[in-house]
């Protein structure tokens, strides 16, 4: 364990988060998402795992990972098939973690299921969680950390 780093963040995940640059996408996926096959198509090319609920994983990742403030789709969720405006509890929980990490209400857009798969294939990496609830799938676009004020 390391001071100040959430213990859910294993070495493989930390390496991927550090290697990513501005504009790269990170996918947090539930257990039903085709994570392995999609991860093979990402930049990293292999699946990462954190066996915890989606909101806990989002909290851990967002403790280190800045969201992109230059785009309107830096946080996205897979929408429910046939019910694009319905937001299930798992997505509400992740929204709370996003808002807490960013220190303000942060918009999370919805993406149709198959469009989400396509975005995921172009991502830097996929983290499969232990989340068993449906639609616990999210895309986060990495932002920047500004230089220290002089």
From TrEMBL:
Keywords of this entry: Isomerase
SUPFAM superfamilies (alphabetical): RbsD-like
Domain of life where this protein originates: Bacteria
Gene Ontology MF term list: L-fucose mutarotase activity
EC top class named in words: isomerase
Gene3D superfamilies xref list: RbsD-like domain
Listed EC numbers: 5.1.3.29
Catalysis: reaction(s): alpha-L-fucose = beta-L-fucose; beta-D-ribopyranose = beta-D-ribofuranose
Name of this protein: L-fucose mutarotase
